[in-house]
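<given_protein>
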Amino acid sequence: MPPSEQARWFTEEVQPHEPALRAYLQARFPTLEEHDDIVQETYARLLRAQSNGGVRYPKAFLFTAARNVAFDLFRRRGAKPTEAVTDLVELTVLEDRPGVGEQLDQTYELEVLADAVRALPDRCRQVIMLRYLDGLAYKEIAVQLGISAETVKVHMAKGMRRCAAFFAERGLLEIAPPTTGEATP
């Protein structure tokens, strides 16, 4: 990609997500003071991946790469991503609600899950939804759809593989490093 096209891509597809990325880092890794360094390393990884074959989903790549950079930083330090609370008496407020970063994560992951299910072939989608939304057993699904239990198993396996591939493409599923030279966050 020519430098001017790469600059346009970065400005239009990546930079608009920086405020959300910084909020995510602050909420998810409040003990880290190096958020600027994490953002810069994330951008470097994103640009390397883009030049090595393209990034289909810049936002997903950005958040996944930032999380991985933060975890790498903790590993290098030998520290854990959260601090242990030793004296609960000093805590004046405990809140059960997820923070902004977690809410962004959950919302995005639910959107991707819905997209993954919508992208499945019709019969496969029916089987997945009957299993996970209605809680039906394979035999019950088979009776309801008029197919064999073995066919239900085939559709389940196919649907799970396709959903896993869908999640991996968007950076939501950790997969082993590729051996074919593909880029990962």
Remarks:
- DSSP finds eight helices and no strands in the chain.
- The helical segments are 3-14, 18-28, 35-51, 58-77, 100-118, 122-132, 138-145, 149-169.
- Residues 119-173 form a domain with the Arc Repressor Mutant, subunit A fold (CATH 1.10.10.10).
